[in-house]
Amino acid sequence: MLATRNPHKLRELGDLIAPHELDPPPAGLELPPETGSSFADNALIKARAAADATGRPAIADDSGIVVEALGGGPGIRSARYAGDDATDEENLAKLLRDLNGETDRRAAYVCVLALVETSRPPELYEGRCTGVIVTAPRGSGGFGYDPAFLPDDRAPDDRRTMAELAPAEKDAISHRGRAARALLEGVPVRA
User: Fold this and answer.
1) 127, 177 Cβ separation under 8 angstroms
2) Which residues contact 21 (CB under 8 A, 6 or more apart)?
3) What share of the chain is helix, strand, coil (3-state, %, to 5)?
4) CB within 8 A of 33, min separation 6: which ones?
5) How far is CA 181 from CA 30, 40, 175, in A?
6) How far apart are CA 177 and CA 98, in angstroms?
7) DSSP 77-95
8) Phi, psi (5° rounding) for residue 28?
């Protein structure tokens, strides 16, 4: 089970860990708020709650974007950067406003997956994708900050944002893709 109500994450992670299948949490299961101080803390909070409530193995993801010029922000507040009920578009617009005139636009997407099974210690898997924030969004693929994120892991003359990449290209270099491959390979960052 994937402890999220985000359909983008369910679809993306489901594709990344195929042929394994991910189920969403049962309709009545309320996922706890993300009150941790790190991506790992938040992923563990959600995965533990789902595993404890259902008795099934659970995976939870916490991810976001960390920007050098913002001291690592928005970080764990990436989904709520422009406010608790902000849309992806509102969060992206705030990020671009906050970076207006900034020359250091280095950033990284970070994803931590927590795997919790009631019979063994939890495991954490991390993936990172570095890049820069462009000044104007481009592309219609992906979600979140993808239209403004230009990944480093492309050919030097390839200026496409994450939102302009084909899904397979994005999965090959994304933070979530890297964390999912670490999970499939059984290479946790720490248990």
Assistant:
1) yes
2) 14
3) 35, 20, 40
4) none
5) 28, 17, 10
6) 28
7) GGGGTT-TT--HHHHHHHH
8) -80, -10
What pTM value is reported for the model?
Answer: 0.93
User: What end-to-end distance do the CA atoms of the chain give, in Å?
Assistant: 19
Secondary structure letter of residue 140 according to DSSP: S
Q: At what angle do helices 175-185 and 7-16 cross, to 10 degrees?
A: 50
Q: Which residues are catalytic?
A: 62
Mean pLDDT of the chain: 94
Compute the distance between CA of residue 11 and CA of residue 186 in angstroms, rounded to an integer. 21
Tokens found for residue 107: 């950033």
Report the distance separating Cα 26 and Cα 30, nearest Å: 9
Which residues of the chain carry a pLDDT beneath 70? 190-191
Q: What is the pLDDT of residues 97-132, one digit of tens each?
A: 999 999 999 999 999 999 999 889 999 999 999 999
How far, in Å, CA of 83 to CA of 32, rounded?
18
Copy the structure tokens of residue 6.
């985000």
Query: Any idea what the Cα angle at residue 24 is, between residues 18 and 28, rounded to 5°?
Result: 165
The distance from CA 14 to its chain's CA centroid, rounded to whole angstroms, is 14
Distance CA 46, CA 168 (A): 27
Dump strand ranges (E) for 12-99: 58-67
